[in-house]
Amino acid sequence: xxxxxxxxxxxxxxxxxxxxxxxxxxxxxxxxxxxxxxxxxxxxxxxxxxxxxxxxxxxxxxxxxxxxxxxxxxxxxxxxxxxxxxxxxxxxxxxxxxxxxxxxxxxxxxxxxxxxxxxxxxxxxxxxxxxxxxxxxxxxxxxxxxxxxxxxxxxxxxxxxxxxxxxxxxxxxxxxxxxxxxxxxxxxxxxxxxxxxxxxxxxxxxxxxxxxxxxxxxxxxxxxxxxxxxxxxxxxxxxxxxxxxxxxxxxxxxxxxxxxxxxxxxxxxxxxxxxxxxxxxxxxxxxxxxxxxxxxxxxxxxxxxxxxx
Amino acid sequence: xxxxxxxxxxxxxxxxxxxxxxxxxxxxxxxxxxxxxxxxxxxxxxxxxxxxxxxxxxxxxxxxxxxxxxxxxxxxxxxxxxxxxxxxxxxxxxxxxxxxxxxxxxxxxxxxxxxxxxxxxxxxxxxxxxxxxxxxxxxxxxxxxxxxxxxxxxxxxxxxxxxxxxxxxxxxxxxxxxxxxxxxxxxxxxxxxxxxxxxxxxxxxxxxxxxxxxxxxxxxxxxxxxxxxxxxxxxxxxxxxxxxxxxxxxxxxxxxxxxxxxxxxxxxxxxxxxxxxxxxxxxxxxxxxxxxxxxxxxxxxxxxxxxxx
Lengths: 309, 309
What we know:
CATH topology of the largest domain in chain A: UDP-N-acetylmuramoyl-L-alanine:D-glutamate ligase
Largest interface: A-B, 30 and 30 residues
Oligomer: homodimer
């Protein structure tokens, strides 16, 4: 199975309102809820692609119960979340039906105790022997040490399990130094890590800092990959209009599935780009449109990119 | 005990954000949750005044579980909520720390099935013999017939239990015709019922429609009561600055507690006005400030009001 780690899981709630006007009262016309956090989103896409996938991380409180109930009902995703005493956070996306714009309210998440963090590390070590690959995704909740991902990368490497790291800021900086197999920063995360907004230069710099492969997600411009086997750009056929929520998680799922299927890099990048575009295109945020995915698969262009060195 | 009925219970969530800006992402700095819905709020004030109080209505789903857990932890409030299959609604108050303003997002609430509505009516009849008074509070959830309060008023009267009705629109219009002991409309609700924004005229018209006593809550201007024993105005000493959330529920609690203690009307109105002012003054929305309450108790002025007839 593929293992995804989400230390800051969430219950993602979407409210539709006719028009959001601050300092007034709104009747919500539609409420949808689903388990969230980057690794959970990645798992959902992997399951939809036919992979066996296990999610771990933390869940607690009433919101954690809802997350687990909904995961139990999700086909193909195995719940290996570690219980904590704090309550799993909610995120609320308020969609303005008039403009289509979204206003996001994110709870800070529970504080994880040292005992809970130790319990997670044990659970992680128990899961790794069954894993064909592991993805470490998203922000760290309060209480988890900033070097957490660096430790989890090293543990995965000690079990010879390929590890993808998708985070930002100091946890990314430290995690990269632990030599993960893949990182997937967006342009801002990559610039924060390397100091450069020039993607070719920045991806190569990130490799020098420790990442074996760097796949930068550049929004509508697609992906730029710096790998030990070469550099590639993957671009969607036309600008894809829609909601970019979850496109980055779809890229991670595409890269991981291609990794465990031993696809060559251009095929992995094609899949990841097509999944991202089909996620932007889908009517529901974070889902991907399977018809669009299959259409994009044959229309993504992958070209060799020159080294900036 | 005093019985309060909240057919549309809620989990009231308050988010503090540094500044609410539509179509951007916000990190919530503080999350508070408490059981809500008007009758639940009334019960909390009654319990704080030392009364035994039982809450009934509906609770369901994960949010209903949280409401019940929190009620179990609330001193002096007995939970007699009736389980339903739908999920209890959430309300979210987003407080902008820069301006102090609140943006409200209210979920619509679950649909109550005919079987669940019947189960509630049975539970209500089982509770009435132990009740010294009953308050019927708030909006009706989908699935509950619009004449619901009229029926509940008649049932209370058949058990000779004094009944206060605090709702609006068509449920109020129908409820009034069933001859409740007290209604407590605000100026808008009273105008919708009677067609008049002239409070003295409107309260008397509402009495002619069936309410034995009408206590109109007029915001900063206090209360206007039209009773079989006379007409009174109760006014807070000075304009009270703060958050009016829950002031109406505090009025209901003041009136009910005065009723079961057989206080004369001026004393009931003094208590209700002081509680409302102390609720506006309190730092936490919907709570009342006990020191301010005791201070206001001796400073509220109650004067006889001339009849408009």
